Structure formats: structure tokens, C-alpha cells
Amino acid sequence: MDKYLEKFTLNLILFFPFLMIFGIFTSQVISLSIILISVYLIIKTNKFHILNNKILIFLFLFSFYISLNALLNGKTIFQLSTLLYFRFVVFTACIFFILQLKPLKIHVREHSLYLFTFSFILLDAIYQYIFGYNFFGFEVDQKQNYGRVAGLFEENLILGSFLLRFFPIILIIITLNKFDLKKYSILSTIFFSIYFLTIFLSGERTAFFLLIIFLGLSIIFIRYFRKIFINSLIIFSIIVTLLSYFKIGEYNPTDRIFFKTFNEITDQKIKDDYKIKKLEDKFNYSRDIKFFSKDHEGHFKLALHLFSENKVFGTGPEGFRVHCGNINHNSNIGVCSVHPHNLFLQVLSELGLIGVIFYFIAATYVIYNFFKIVKIGSLKMNVEQISFLISSLAIMINFFPFVPSGNFFNTWISIIIYYTLGFYLYLNSKIFKK
User: Is it the case that residue 17 has pLDDT exceeding 90?
Assistant: First the structure.
């Protein structure tokens, strides 16, 4: 019975990304199921020692600080809802526990099903891009969403973020199961090319830029995927060029990802004919440089203002939203929104210097151990060490401070972050055995 539960829970963990497609309610039900089964197995097997992990202790301290901060600063239901933030750390702990019990090895049938399901998500999105609706009839919203592709997520424009954040998990599963990339090089190249293309077609600029960073670091430091990634990027670039040149599809993602970004950062007006309307400023972009856009810069300015007034503890979780809900908000000190649209500045403004200390301790730890493994050399690394590097890069892109981001306290984002942390803890414990 226990072996069956272990296998069942492992499958829930492995196929969790696909279950998230059905919505946040389903995600929470499945995560709760994983937690309840794991707690039962921990008690039944009396293997509490597995959870004696320094990273887990650190995460629980961080969640305790968030809950305490919410209790002290909480003024609205949004802030008080973070009192239960520790549930995400419990989710991480349970994933870590199950992966310790059951080796992350899957049968060929499960491996094929895993890749097939992701392939279906990709092809569904590409079909929607070309024809304006996906396999299930979900149409692209030309007015509200500018024709951007959402695929199975319907009106929620999170396809690119979803694919980006679960991409490292795919690589970890491929690596630990010793998938023969050389034998299936053509198939692998096609899969990765389509994967990159779908993120691009989603029109999510942050997801695409983080993908480029992830691939760049992977090519530099992880020899195992170097050739396949380079070949996939070449094919991806050719496809994007052809799509843009022949204007195939419901909208041109190149306009949004490149031209719109350039226009917002430099305050110029460049279109797909590559002509800058403000010719007098052609060589003087620097004076109008914005941090992504005027609105983003306004959010960041307001976040820094809130930090200046609450330096130690911040305004509390979701404090940015609460401040902006105040009708007396002074627009001269920044632009309002529900969150600062930057993870680091959200930590700074809502959790204060104490939150930033947690952030820098975690960042230092991840980066230090990443390069500790890199020093071993690509040719000497085993599959667990390669997988650890991938999981480290996953943490880095999830917490990358120099791009716009979603709300750190958003349930959907938190579930993905702490899901990934479960894999990181598992691989960390396998390599740095205490």
C-alpha cells in the first residue's frame, strides 16, 4: 500500500505541470493531496530525519518572517492571506521527501507520455497562432490581448511563463533518466526548437528574455546540452525570420518583443521598417532611457519610496497593493499597480531590509554552489551534477532581479517556485551529502 502511494505521489509530482493547466483551484487541490499523502508517509515510515535539511530550515524561517510581518502590518484580506505562506514551504518539503523515497527514474512509457503532453501544448499554441483558435476552439482575443497566443490557458496570458518555468524540470527528467540526445538528436532538436518558438509566440517578453539568459548560461556551463541547444536556436531563428518576413499568423510577436521593448526603453518610435521617426535623437537614446517602460519605471519609483518609509520591515506582504488602494496616493511619487512588477523591488518594499537579507543569503548560496560544481569540469560531471546545475539555473531565472516579474505572493507563481525548489533540494542533498 505504501509503495503504491509513493509511486502515485511521485506521478502527481511529475505530471503536476500539466494539471496546472486546469486552473489554480486544481493546482491547489493537487498540491494539498501531495502534502497530505506525504505527511501520512512521513508518519507511517517514521522518516522525519529526511526533513532535517538546512535549506528547508532557512525556507521555514523566511516563511515565518513573512507570516509575522503580515500579522504586524496586515490591514486587508490580501495581506492577512499571507499568514499561511508557510504552506508553500511545506509543499517543497513534501516534494523533497517523496523524491528521496522514490528515485526520479521513470519508465520509457511515462517518459514518452511526458514529452508527448508537452508537445501537445506546444502544437496547440502554434495552431492557435496560425489559425486564430486552438484545438479546442479557444480564440485569440485581438482587442484585449493584441492577438497574443495563450493556448490552453484561454484568456490568461501565461503560456510563455508556464513553459519557461517548467523547462528546467523537463531537462532534469531527461538528464536523470539518461535520455540519449545523440541517438534522438533530430527529434530533440525539433522539440526544443518548437519549445523556444512557442515561448516567443506567446509574446511574453520577460519569459523570452529569461529563456535567452537560461540558454546562454546552459551553453556556457553545461556541455551536455550545448550542441542540441545551439542547433535548436539556429532553427528557431530561421523559423522566426520566415514568420516575420512572410507575416504568417494572427499577429507579429517580433513587434511586441523587440520593437515595442526598444520603443519603451528608449522612448523612440521604431517599427518593422526599421526607421526611427525621431531622427534628431537617433544617436542620443541615453537621455530618454527608461527601465523597460514609463509605467514600469513608475512602479519601481513607488516601490523605492515605500521602502524609504519602512526600511527594516517594509510595508508588509501585498503592501504595495494596499498603498495603491489609498485614494490619497500621490501620483508624483510613482505609478500605482497591484505590485511593483519586479521581484527584488517587491521584496525590498514589502519585506524591507530583513527580506533583502534573506534574498541575498539565498542568492549567494545558489551561485556559490553552482560554480562549485562547474569547477569539476563538464567532462567529469555525472547526471546528478548536471541536473543540479539545471535546477540552480531554474532558481536564478525565477528570482532574476533585472527584469519585470509577476507578484511574488501570487499563488500560481508561488506554487511553481516552490515546486522547483523541491527538485533543487533533492539534487542538492544528493550532491552535498552531509
Answer: yes
